[in-house]
Amino acid sequence: MKALLLIDIQNDFMPTGSLAVPNGNKIVAPVNAVQLHFDLVIASQDWHPASHVSFAKNHLGKKEFQIIRLEGLEQTLWPAHCVQNTTGAEFHPNLHTQKVETIFRKGTNPALDSYSAFYDNAHQKSTGLAGYLKEKGITELYFTGLAADICVYFSIKDALAEGFECVVFEDAVRALDENTYQQQQEELKEQGVNYCRTADFLK
Ligand code: VGL
Ligand code: ZN
């Protein structure tokens, strides 16, 4: 059985948002189009407290997009984004959410970032998504969302490790950094990830 994952399709990752992904808004139409063809649609939401450790403004003298070490992990310092209960954290207003069965929120721990929809960056705590999908008999995951090179990428890595087959709808993702995304694509293809256009899937 297959499920469709909508990763972080939130206002702050749109071109007008605080952590803008170029052309991020272009994914909304293809995401809506494929939703009707899945029995299970799940969304994730980046959901940070205002005090979150990943925000540059919470570190004296540090700049946005600077990389620091945090508990032995590299941490990029981002502009404040997806703060709980703000407009920036809401899904894109045109995203259809009627078919979304459950929303998994992540990045709620103020002291740790969480790119993947499955685990935090230190792999300390699960969101429960893997067990949830397995309980429903899901074996194949179709990925959409933002950003392709951050949260979608790390979600796919965890999904592979959990034994799911993974497909990326390539016109339903956009990257913060196009070069990083291209490199990751090579890596993930070698690990068995398939890339497919929504129009070909709908044919
Ligand atoms: C994301 C950076 C920081 C994402 C979330 O959803 O790709 N990127 N937090
Ligand atoms: Zn975040």
UniProtKB/TrEMBL annotation:
Enzyme's top EC category: hydrolase
Protein keywords: Hydrolase, Metal-binding, Pyridine nucleotide biosynthesis
Q: Keyword Hydrolase: yes or no?
A: yes
- Superkingdom of origin: Bacteria
Q: Specify whether Ubl conjugation is a keyword of the entry.
A: no
What Gene3D superfamilies does the record point to? Isochorismatase-like
- Which Pfam families does UniProt cross-reference here? Isochorismatase (PF00857)
Which pathway does the database say it acts in? Cofactor biosynthesis; nicotinate biosynthesis; nicotinate from nicotinamide: step 1/1
User: Domain Isochorismatase-like spans what residues?
Assistant: 3-199
Q: Which GO terms describe its molecular function?
A: nicotinamidase activity
Q: Which range is the signal sequence, renumbered to this chain?
A: none
**What EC identifiers does the entry list?**
3.5.1.19
Say which family it is in: Belongs to the isochorismatase family.
NCBIfam families named among the record's database cross-references: PRK11609.1
Q: What is this protein called?
A: nicotinamidase
